Each structure stands twice: as C-alpha cells, then as structure tokens.
Amino acid sequence: MSLNPLLAIKALAAYQFGIEVAEALFKKEIMNSLKPKFSGKTGRIRYIFLNNAPYLSIRTSDGFLTLSIKAAREVLSSLSKFENLVVVDKNAVKSMLERKEVLAKQVKEVSKNLKAGSEVIVIDEDRKIIAVGRAILSGREMLEIKRGAVIKLRKVSRYV
After folding, report:
1. Is the pLDDT of residue 160 over 90?
2. What are the start-end ranges of the E strands in 7-100?
3. What is the tens place of the pLDDT at every residue in 88-137?
4. For 5-78, CATH number?
C-alpha cells in the first residue's frame, strides 16, 4: 500500500498554512486535475501542476511549499481570512515589480502573527493579487520599521 503523493502534499500544506488553506488548495473539484512531478535525481515531489500549469512547488532548501499565482487566487477566492496576506500601496506597484521586493513604507496592512520566512500573498488595496513571495521580516517588524525590504517577490501577477 502506497500513500497518494497529493495527500502527502495536502498534509504539508495543512502543517504550513493551516487546514482551511489546505482544503482550499486541494478542493475535490481540482484534485483530479492535479499532477505531481518528481525529481529525476531524488525521486521526491518537486512540483504540482494544475491542468499543466504550475500550481505548487517544494523548496529544496527547507521542504516547504511555494505558491503560484494560480494557487494564490484559489486561496483568496476560497477564504475570507488568510494569515499570510500583505496589503500594499497600489501606487507603488511599479517600483515593487522593478525591484522584485516590497519595501517597508509600501506595506499598508499585515497580520502581526506573520513569521519571517513565511510564504506570502501580496495584494493591493483593491484585493488584486500583485505577487507571491517570501517574508524577510515578521509582520510586527514590517509595521515597525520605516525603511528597507520586507518581502522578496518570486512570481508576479499578469494584471500588473
């Protein structure tokens, strides 16, 4: 008897983001469309594709999940509250995308419980997804400091 790789990734998502987010990412409607891609070298899961488009990746450095823009949309459409959400000034979007990072002065709202190193979804005040990335500082620190980068952006939404 072997474990379904998608159930293992769902358990990882529940550990990393919480059960509600894992349920949003792995809805029954999309479970049949998800396909894991394994590493040729190690045989471990590296990517999860939804209809042949990137959905989730596993960071080799720590084994945690990274979100694609499609996964971020799925989370935001399914949940009213998400801890790893950062609201930024929509007037500063262009400079964020050029620098591939969010500066402290551009952050409008963030959960104080956000931990440094967490996977985050960056949205503007109109709740449009701008990007996904990794928090450099905790949510409390993002609100307290006045200067410097607080989030490294990885994937940018096409709307921008």
Report:
1. no
2. 34-38, 45-50, 53-58, 65-67, 85-88
3. 998 888 888 888 999 999 999 998 889 999 999 999 998 899 999 999 99
4. 3.10.450.90
**Neighbour order of strands in the sheet with 34-38:** 34-38, 45-50, 53-58, 65-67
For Cα atoms 91, 159, 108, give the angle at the middle one, nearest 5 degrees: 35
Residue 137: how many CA atoms within 13 Å on its side-chain side?
Answer: 20
User: 4-61: per-residue pLDDT in tens?
Assistant: 889 999 999 999 999 999 999 999 999 889 999 999 998 889 999 999 999 999 998 8
| Residue 135 φ then ψ, to 5° | -70, 130
- CA pair distance 4, 2, nearest whole angstrom: 6
- Domain ranges in the chain are 5-78, 85-156
CATH tag, 85-156 = 2.30.130.10
Give the separation between CA 58 and CA 40, rounded to whole angstroms.
14
Q: What is the largest CA-CA distance in the chain?
A: 54
3-state DSSP percent of the chain in helix, strand and coil, to 5: 35, 30, 35
CA 39 from chain center: how many Å? Answer: 22
